[in-house]
Every structure is written in structure tokens, then in C-alpha cells.
Amino acid sequence: MASSSFHFILFSTLFFSLSFSNAQPSFRPRALVLPVSKDASTLQYLTRINQRTPLVSVNVVVDLGGQFLWVDCDQGYVSSSYIPARCNSAQCSLAGADGCGTCNAPARPGCNNNTCGLLPDNTVTRTATSGELTQDVLSLQSTNGRNPGPVVSIPRYLFTCAATFLLDGLANGAKGMAGLGRARIGLPSQFAAAFSFNRKFAICLSSSTSANGVIFFGNEPYVMQPNIDISTSLIYTPLLINPVSTASAYSQGDRSTEYFIGVKSIKVNEKAISLNSTLLTIQSDDGYGGTKISTVNPYTVLESSIYNALTQAFVREASYLPRVQSVAPFGFCFDSTNVGSTRVGPAVPSIDLVLQSESVYWRIFGANSMVQVRDNVLCLGFVDGGLNPRTSIVIGGHQLEDNLLQFDLATSRLGFSSSLLFRQTTCSNFNFTSNV
Ligand SMILES: *[C@@H]1O[C@H](CO)[C@@H](O)[C@H](O)[C@H]1NC(C)=O
Ligand SMILES: *[C@@H]1O[C@H](CO)[C@@H](O)[C@H](O)[C@H]1NC(C)=O
Ligand SMILES: *[C@@H]1O[C@H](CO)[C@@H](O)[C@H](O)[C@H]1NC(C)=O
Q1: 225 located within any domain
Q2: Using alpha carbons only, what angle is made at residue 404 by residues 401 and 409, rounded to the nearest 5 degrees?
Q3: What cellular component terms from Gene Ontology apply here (predicted)?
Q4: Is pLDDT at 146 greater than 50 in this prediction?
Q5: Which terminus in the chain has less CB density within 10 A, N or C?
Q6: Domain containing residue 315
């Protein structure tokens, strides 16, 4: 009796492992998922990818508008599946990498002859360098939109090597940056091509440094506990293309891979503030102006005249709040002792980014407009970007947290949820317990 059940267990284990390994190559995910953490000291958002053979887990900074994945190959890159992109190969042309590089040192990852290269860009410090285009195994979890599912691999994922110094300014432990921008070798496009799903992805950044947010690649649903599919109630606005690259280094004629939207006006407590409309428009000749979304800026940065107009209107509408000495990088701070609290954060005037029509706006509530810098001190979480910045409005991380944003590259459309706090959930409520 005992012996026959033992055989049965052995047999069934064998059966399942065989069917699993047979099923694995034909399993085609409809979406993928990555966790995102927030680094408490830099306020950067980090994700973790598994790469190389044998697989190593690598922390990289999430760069929403970045062109591609780049990692430090100089220190500790060991992999038997590393394949540099040979000059004039299909990989070089897909990546838009011309030229042919050599390396005057013993061959190793990041240093090979006859390879094409790109310019990995640290968009935090705005430093770019040259690096070899290459391919290696990358693996991550699939999802049904509710839980992570089976792990899937891309055998030849294209990325760029960088020298170790390019990590300066990134969060402790980060080994590179993951670019989710519009480039053909950005994460969204490569994942969509590898598994034949739609070129779209969604980010949901957690406001907590101790609970993970989430990035979904591919199709909906995007479900947060308790069982709320955020994808069914998004507001949509066109994504705009800046014809002039916003990267730290680029070739003439390159377009920006960042995501721009068309903010037409700004309202405080539903009253429009007066703005120079030229600044709100992307200038076709030099690419100045306009509004982009960024995960490398911790707070929204506004061109000075926009900053002044917004902060003056806010102070006027919030005249009941006692001002206190400001705390850098903010210019306007308040005593929060008597500030009421609501489901969507401190009770303060709403700030609306009005989009393609008066009825389509991104409303920013207290949880996203205000920053608690210390007990009883609440600051307006916007930063003065000076005169003549490259982009007039850069919507930063604090304003994105606990909002889900879906970027659809094929239809060039942004879907945004507004604050999930209204729906009694947050971006840290994705169920990361695998269902396999
Ligand atoms: C590249 O070629 C040069 C000249 O032939 C050689 O000296 C150098 O060692 C090679 N580098 C690598 C990484 O193979
Ligand atoms: C509006 O901004 C543009 C671009 O910076 C500038 O050239 C123009 O003088 C500004 N207009 C006004 C009325 O300030
Ligand atoms: C999270 O998912 C796991 C796996 O499907 C499930 O067992 C668990 O009940 C879920 N947790 C919650 C809080 O729903």
C-alpha cells in the first residue's frame, strides 16, 4: 500500500515536470509584471529584472521616458549567454545604432571588437556615455492582471552596456536604468514583440518606501486588491511626440522617446490661472516647451512663470492655511495642524491640468499636491524650474503616486485613473503572490 502510493507520487511528479517543461515554450503570456520600489534617500523608483546565464537579479532605476535598458557591464558581469551586436547586424539597425566600435582591452562583456554602440543616458545626472549594444537572456513574470504567473524568458533581449561611473547619482545598489520610452528597443516594444502582445504598459507607483508598486506590460486587466480592475475606468488623452530628442546626448533628427501630453491650462479650485500658452506648446523647431511625464523627477518641475502663477493662486485659495518657513526644494509650506484630512489626502485646493478639452482634466488632490516634510509642516510639492527650461512642465513622481497611468504606444494615448485613494485602493495593492 505504502509502496504503491510512493510510486504514484513519483510518477505524477515526473508527469507534471514533463508536461510543464513541454508547456513552457508554447506558453505565451498576454501580459508581464514587474514590482517597483521607492528608494527612500533618492526618491528614485527601482525595479528588479533577472538577466544573464546563470540568472542574476539586477536592480535598475525606472526611467519612464528612457530609450532602453542599460546596465553596468564593467563590474561583475558574468554570463555565458552574452552576445554583442555585430556591426551592421539586424540588431544594430533595429536599435538605430550605426558605426562600428573597437575596444583596446581583453574581450569581456562591454568590450568587444566589431560591435555597434549607443549612448546610455543617466537621466538623473544628465550624463551620457558610449556603450556596446548587446543581447542576453532576460526573464520576468507573466501575469493575468491579478497575480504573477509563470516566469517567461526572452533569450536575446537587447540592451546597452555602460561603464560603472554612469551609475553615479543612482540609488544605492542600482546597476543601471530601465527605459520605458518609445524607442524600438525600449522595454515596452521589446516585450510586445517577444510575446506578440499590444505595445502598451501601465505604471502604478507606490507612495510608500516599504510597499511595492507595479508595472504591467501588455493587455489589461490591471487588478488591485480588493478586486478592482483599474483599467475599466481610465480617462484618455493623446500622447504627443516631441520632434527633438530630450536625451542628454543625441544625433540631429532624433525624436524624443519621452511621453508628452497636451496641458492647455491649469486650474486651482476650478479657476483658471493665467499662463503663457507658448510655453505649453512643444515648439517644432527646437523642441522646447510642453508637458512631459517623468519618473526621474521626484516632484513636478514648472517653468518659473508657471510656477509663480500656480503658487500664487494656491496661496490665495488656501489663505486659511498659515504659512511657515519654506523647506527646500519647496517654496511654499504651511502649518498643517488644522488641515483637515480627506480620503485623497490633506484638504487643500484642487489643482487641475486641463487637457484636450475643458471636460478632460487630471485633478491633483492633496495626497499628490502636498508633501509632509515634518510633523505639522506641509509643503506644496512643486518645484521652480527656472526660466527657459527645455520642458515647461515635468510631471514628477510624487504627483504620479497612487495613480495608474497606461501608455498605449500603438494608439498614442495615455489613460489615467486619477487618485486610487478615491476607490479605497493604492498602487501597493497588486497581489504579488504567484498563482503558479
Ligand atoms: C580588437 O582588435 C585590436 C586590433 O586587432 C586588438 O588589439 C584588441 O585586443 C581587440 N580587442 C578585443 C576586445 O578583442
Ligand atoms: C511666452 O513665452 C515665450 C517662450 O518663452 C516667450 O518668447 C514670450 O515672450 C512669452 N510671452 C509673454 C507675453 O511673456
Ligand atoms: C493573493 O493571491 C493568492 C494566489 O492567488 C491568493 O491565494 C490570496 O488569497 C490572494 N490574497 C488576497 C489578499 O486576495
Answers
A1: no
A2: 125
A3: extracellular region
A4: yes
A5: N
A6: 230-423
> Side chain identity at 414, as an amino acid letter?
L
Measured CA to CA, the distance from residue 430 to residue 33 in angstroms comes to 10
- Are 213 and 294 in the same domain? no
pLDDT score for 104: 92
What 8-state DSSP symbol labels residue 254?
Answer: P
Q: How far is CA 42 from the centre of its chain?
A: 15
Can you give the CATH number for the domain in which 18 is found? 2.40.70.10
Clarify whether residues 419 and 377 are in a common domain: yes
The neighbour count for residue 244, using CB atoms within 10 Å, is 18
pLDDT of residue 20: 36
Beta strand pairing call for 56-63 and 176-179: parallel
User: Which residue, 220, 245, 272, sits at the end of a domain?
Assistant: 220
Instruction: Say whether pTM exceeds 0.85.
Output: yes
Same domain for 330 and 303: yes
Span from the CA of 195 to the centroid of ligand 3 (angstroms): 26
Q: Give the total number of structural domains in the chain.
A: 2
Residue 98 pLDDT: 82
Q: Indicate the pLDDT class of residue 25, thresholds 50, 70 and 90.
A: low
Ligand 3 centroid to Cα of residue 147, in Å, is: 8
